[in-house]
Design brief:
The chain has 345 residues and is an alpha/beta fold. The protein has eleven helices and ten strands. It has helices at 41-58, 77-86, 102-110, 124-130, 135-142, 167-176, 200-216, 230-237, 290-294, 297-300, 324-331, and strands spanning 7-13, 61-67, 91-94, 113-119, 152-159, 181-186, 223-224, 263-266, 271-273, 281-284. Strands 7-6-5-4-3-2-1-8-9-10 form a ten-stranded mixed sheet. Strand 8 (263-266) and strand 9 form a beta hairpin. The radius of gyration is 20 Å and the shape is globular. The model has no long low-confidence stretch (mean pLDDT 92).
Amino acid sequence: MDTLVPRFAMQWHITDRCDQRCKHCYIYQGMEKNHINELPLNILEETLENFISSCNLIGCEPILTITGGDPLLYPKIWEFLEIVNKNKIHFSILGNPFHLSYEVVERLESLGCRGYQMSIDGLRKTHDYIRKAGSFDTTLDSLKYFKGRNIRTAIMSTVSKTNINELPDLVDIVVEYGVDNYAFARYCPNPGDFHLILSPNEYKDFLDRMWNKFNKYKESGTRFALRDHLWNLYLYEKGLFTIDNIDNPDNLIIDGCHCGISHITTLADGTVYACRRCISPVGKVQEESIYDIFLGEKMEEYRKFDDFEHCAKCELKNFCRGCPAVAKCLTGNFYSKDPQCWKEF
């Protein structure tokens, strides 16, 4: 049997061009729509080579998630994807629905695209308020382009007080439309939006409602990805996740937040972030290798696992750690307590 090769992922924002500026956008908050960052094709090719060679040095399989803005708006998107395909890199896209068609999806499939994720952040009125008028219906309608294709569809939601009561009903809709994968992540607050932060009990109750929905549709064909690391705490308390039989003599991080462990984010100007969900610059791809950035001192600041103020005392430290990005956005401290964690000591 072949040995499993660990994966190293890069979420790559290749352009700032976008048809919408969502109210919860955590990277481009405050930017004007006409403020466009993007690198020329030759720099993207050099960055791809940098990423592949760095993965080879680390000993990991390179995994690309290409996003923006809307990556389909990058002026030379097809030339870029031809380069990715030439390097035999399978990739997924996080994008918008507005520029999809049968022809576009067919071309994406031919170039090695394996997944296309869009966002729905509530029912129609709420989603269109957060993103763009007409976006809800356009997103659902665009799912037809993927039928019969070897590209898995995904819908992602961002959870806040604005939409928390609508997302259980949204699960019914994504199942009805045959979406392959559904997941949600919590809102990382921007200054002035702290009133949208959920309390620990509100969030725990929300997880309970979503867990019941997921179980209702467990035979539906839609996969429900438990991306939020507080799922581990939730399932642990329900007795559905145990750590007693896990042999870990070296006290290794096994699960939970992968920041500083197995992924980075590269923005449209080449800035590398430790975490895609909060301001966390650690280098620039035009100036040094991704390998050196990932093993550098700035990235080490995100690997001090014993510095977690709350998690370091928890038996789930090696399996959870909540979302440090939410904590950092709220308090300025990556290692402060996850504001939605309900566990007390």
